[in-house]
Amino acid sequence: MFKRSLLFSTFVLMLSFSAAYAAPEQIPVPNTVTMLDLGAKSCVPCKMMAPVLEKVGKYYEGKASILFVDVWENPNMKSEYGIQAIPTQIFYDKKGNERERHTGFLDEASIKTKIDALLAE
Fold first, then answer.
1. Considering 38, 40, 46, 64, which one is annotated as catalytic?
2. pLDDT category, 26, cuts 50, 70, 90?
3. Which CATH code fits 34-120?
4. Which region is the signal sequence (predicted)?
5. What residue spans define the domains of the chain?
């Protein structure tokens, strides 16, 4: 019973995660500061990033776009963005230029510092 419940909870978490971080067709989002997180729903550091991305996404709603793409579900994205390890975060300015890239877990304060700097330009 516990095993079944745990499996169901994991499945619900994965569904919620994918629904909350579905990426738009255009990356970066035009005329918007954009943070793209490339990872996978079943990668441990990526799972640790999920609540951070959700919180940051709500904080910057209407000001910046926070996107997540699962590179295991979208394998062409790995080569398109030159991903060597996940999670990888890419920060874009309002003109769509890549300004910074980070690989690994990135905490909320660090993300906000990077986005705030791009918004201030």
1. 46
2. confident
3. 3.40.30.10
4. 1-22
5. 34-120
Both tokens of 40, joined, read 């996978």
Q: Is the pLDDT of residue 73 over 60?
A: yes
Query: What was the pLDDT predicted at 25?
Result: 67
Phi-psi region of 31 (alpha: psi -120 to 50; beta: other; left: phi over 0): left
Is 46 in the active site?
yes
3-state secondary structure of 83: coil
For residue 35, give the nearest of 14, 13, 60 by alpha carbon.
60
pLDDT recorded at residue 67: 93
Distance CA 65, CA 35 (A): 6
Rounded CA separation 7/37 (Å)? 26
- Inter-residue contact 34 to 24 (CB < 8 Å): no
**Is 92 assigned a catalytic role?**
no
